[in-house]
Amino acid sequence: MAESQNIEYKESWRDEYLKWICGFANAQGGKLYIGINDKQQVVGVANSHRLLEDIPNKIVTTLGIVCDVNLLNQDGKDYIEIDVEPSNMPISYKGEYHLRSGATKQQLRGVALQQFIMKKMGLSWDDVTMENVTIDAIDRKAIDYFINEGIYHKRLSPETKYESTETILENLGLLTTDGKIKSAAILLFGKRPQKYFTGIEFRIGRFVKDEADLLIQDSIEGNIIQMADRVIETLKSKYLISPIHYEGMVRVEPLEIPEEGLREILYNAICHKDYSGVHIQMKVYNDRITLWNEGPLPEGFDMEVLLKEHSSHPRNKNIANTFFKAGFIEAWGRGMKKIRDSFAEAKLPMPKIENREGGVLVTIQRSPLFEKLYRGEPQNDAKKLTSRQEAVLALIRENIDITGKELANKLKVSLPTVRRDLSTLRKLGVVIYAGSSKDGHWEILKSFE
């Protein structure tokens, strides 16, 4: 068999191969063969019986584990098989930690080593204790928000609102036995969590064709329990479109992306992010929206697995538990069904989810209606614009935030006249207004850029 995650061949024994045994023990286990070359040919070892005594002793002395060491023979040539079982505890080689990954051995350092040790010990990154941080760093308003959401979703009892901040944190497992605050508490409810964690930002950018065409951008900071609300509010006010229609006499302005599915995607990105990494990044293009957060999917998970019934594997157990108690996420990996159902109801394709650049990338296709507009396919002959309409278009090119009143002053015409021109440009598919009347902006469609 070729070398793989679980198999390694060496022609002769060297004590440094204890690192490979260490790597197998820290991963999924494996077999190290001595006396076989890289072409999987048995070349044999001359001192096999001595090695049968030396190798087990060195493994126990250096690594502190016991492995099966077997003498095998092929065509009169002795070779040795070292069968390594996976260890439930982190194993070190002279203070170094090695891990088998694919057909290679890697030495773990820094953040990767910290995460590996915590995982082996059954801990998550958000279990880390915040030294010299007191309860004063917690925002009671964020706690109250969490309680109200939990009561609304029937995950908390109404009496919870009368409990102290310390009791809430203790019941959520966010305090250690000696009363110290865990990192998850600061991330979830901190007054200024960015003081302690640099990767807590959620950045949004509006682009046209690629990353070089940046129109506007926002950086959303603060605790993560309220972050999804702030992101949705910003998207509604500046980045996404809410087409107006009437159901009977009722005016309805649904978001172009189904809000329930979008919230589920945001909750997952915020909840499962690797907060030792960089900020979350959302990019809004004419035809799609991409969302990337640091931290890959659990091992063995991909889009196909996610769309089936699957168990939940939270990266941040404390954060996930709090999001569940707030009613934001499900405990049994059912969030994907909510996303799929909401997008299907909106007649939009299921977002694509994939591992990309050390994190998870979600790609959401915008409605074909908007894509058609952004391609510059007008309903009428949009090329026949009046000189004043051309002037309006030129001023919008200079300033996408320009108001109707400012246009009227620059063109020296009345405000109703400008409003008629803007209405015409909209109907012709020349411009579109994204966001709310207070915080939105103009966008010129592709054929007229």
Q: Largest sheet, described in full?
A: 6 strands, mixed
CATH class of the largest domain: Alpha Beta
- Which stretches of 5+ consecutive residues score pLDDT under 50? 376-382
> Any idea what the CATH architecture of the largest domain is?
2-Layer Sandwich
Counting structural domains, the number is 3
- Helix content, binned percent: 25-40%
Q: Determine the structural class based on helices, strands and strand pairing.
A: alpha+beta
Q: Strand order within the widest sheet?
A: 8-7-11-12-14-13
Radius of gyration: 29 Å
Instruction: Tell me the distance between the termini.
Output: 59 Å
Gross geometry: elongated
Strand runs, count:
16
Average pLDDT level = 85
Strand content: 15-25%
Number of helix segments? 15
CATH fold type of the largest domain: Heat Shock Protein 90
Secondary-structure topology with pairs:
Elements: E1 7-10, H1 18-26, E2 30-34, H2 48-63, E3 68-74, E4 77-84, E5 97-101, E6 104-108, H3 110-120, H4 140-152, H5 165-171, H6 183-189, E7 202-207, E8 214-220, H7 227-239, E9 245-247, E10 250-252, H8 259-271, E11 280-284, E12 288-294, H9 303-307, H10 317-325, H11 335-345, E13 352-356, E14 359-365, H12 368-374, H13 387-398, H14 404-411, H15 415-427, E15 431-434, E16 441-444
Parallel strand pairs: 1-2, 7-11
Antiparallel strand pairs: 2-4, 3-4, 5-6, 7-8, 9-10, 11-12, 12-14, 13-14, 15-16
Helix pairs in contact: 7-8, 8-11, 14-15
Describe the structure.
The chain is α+β, with helices and mostly antiparallel strands and 449 residues long. It folds into three domains: 7-122, Methyltransferase, Cobalt-precorrin-4 Transmethylase, Domain 2; 201-301 and 337-369, Heat Shock Protein 90; 378-448, Arc Repressor Mutant, subunit A, CATH 1.10.10. It has helices spanning 18-26, 48-63, 110-120, 140-152, 165-171, 183-189, 227-239, 259-271, 303-307, 317-325, 335-345, 368-374, 387-398, 404-411, 415-427, and strands spanning 7-10, 30-34, 68-74, 77-84, 97-101, 104-108, 202-207, 214-220, 245-247, 250-252, 280-284, 288-294, 352-356, 359-365, 431-434, 441-444. It has a six-stranded mixed beta sheet with strand order 8-7-11-12-14-13, covered by helices on one side. The chain has a four-stranded mixed beta sheet with strand order 1-2-4-3. The protein has a two-stranded antiparallel ribbon with strand order 5-6. A hairpin with a 2-residue loop joins strand 3 (68-74) and strand 4. Helix 7 (227-239) packs across helix 8 (259-271). Mean pLDDT is 85; it is low at 376-382.
